[in-house]
Amino acid sequence: MRVKHHSTVGSLVVEADACGLVSRSGTALVPELASRLGLTGRLSEALGHLHRRRPVHAPGAVVVDLATMLIDGGECVSDLGALADQPDLFGRVASHSTASRVLHAIGPAEREALRAARAAARERAWRLGARPQRIVLDFDAHLVEVHSDKEAAAPNRNRGFGFHPLACWLDEGGEALAALLRPGNAGANTAADHVAVLDGALEQLPTEARDRDRDDPIEILARADSAGATHQFAAALRARRVRFSLGYYMKDSAGQAALALPDDAWRPAVDADGQERDGAWVAELTGQVDLSAWPERSRLIVRRERPHPGAQLRFTDVDGLRYQCFLTDQDSEDIVALEVTHRLHARVEDRIAEARELGLARLPFQAFNDNQTWLELILLAQDLLAWLRALILDADGARLAPKRLRHRLLHVAGRLTRSARRRILHLPAAWPWAHQLLAAFARLRALPAPS
């Protein structure tokens, strides 16, 4: 029996003779948003001393283009060519060598200036509508593997080799506030590193939230897993008038106290949407465990639940139930709501996954200083993506992870034409998400230019 072969390419004639075509129509939103937030100008002012003469490419524009390249899917400086090859859409983008010179010239002082420019842009973005309803700081560390002998890389606990950055993100919106690049053998529970990242995160907040010395500072909650449950970090949070919700290692005393609780002390746990969660309960252990070493008014809350089917039981699980604790100094009497709030710390894994999609999975330089600058570019890219979602995209677009966002909106092909001194970008009429991109450009044009 003969099988007829169907081919869509066999009769296709391919020619490279079209003019005015662009392949990344939606990506053009990013540098324009940075300009509208005043970020590009501030960066150029802060980094202007890197050049003795007025440069062809302003350093702020180079930094923003590098962050745009990361959002666009680039993994190294040479990937900037995808933007540079489309000057009609992105303007004059620096070459690989020019961008590399700017990046290598950035040191500790310039990174501090970059952070200051990012904080100023955040303040403007919040005024324009990106302010979260509640400020929740999520701390977490993760391992970044490298496959060559990079400066300051070290073996890690998983028998790998690389780095162990610690970072802080805003829960709502996913803005990246601060990060510390550390060797792979850095401890997950190093209190001094948590305090350093905390101070960097607070410096990123707008003035009204950053001022912790006023009589009624804006409430901020810091969340971390058990790696953040150190006396020094908890004391630092209390000194800065920041509430905390920290995972607590289940010690023998806490375990015995949980087992001794009567049945009526347990309340049904609920999901994030407020629905009762089957097979999970919450109780308070504050009066049953010695917490004198922790800040005053600290509370210990325990959760017990049946592990999901297929989960491997631990030796600490009793009667098929798993017990987990967290330490908090929040005042609410609704311990069920407090437990839900703490459990939502798991969303920090999404922030880490996004940072890896924006360049953190691969630190491209041998020098530690340059990889530190690369990390700052990743934070900038994650901020710009968060502000793009909050200010420009609709609700459906704001939920998209970077990979799908590129597929639907950023990497849309288009055709540029000129008429009456205007450039017109023509999008494919049949593209399913063309109306979303048109609406995004309209919202971007509606944003006021910086004064």
Topology:
Layout: E1 21-22, H1 29-36, H2 39-47, H3 59-72, H4 81-84, H5 87-90, H6 96-105, H7 108-130, E2 135-141, E3 144-145, E4 154-155, E5 161-163, E6 166-170, E7 176-180, H8 191-204, H9 207-210, E8 220-224, H10 231-239, E9 243-248, H11 252-260, E10 267-270, E11 276-284, E12 299-305, E13 322-328, H12 335-343, H13 348-360, H14 368-391, H15 395-398, H16 402-410, E14 414-419, E15 422-426, H17 434-446
Parallel strand pairs: 2-8, 8-9
Antiparallel strand pairs: 1-14, 2-6, 3-5, 4-5, 6-7, 9-13, 10-11, 11-12, 12-13, 14-15
Key structural traits:
40% helix; three-stranded antiparallel beta sheet; alpha+beta; nine-stranded mixed beta sheet; 451 residues
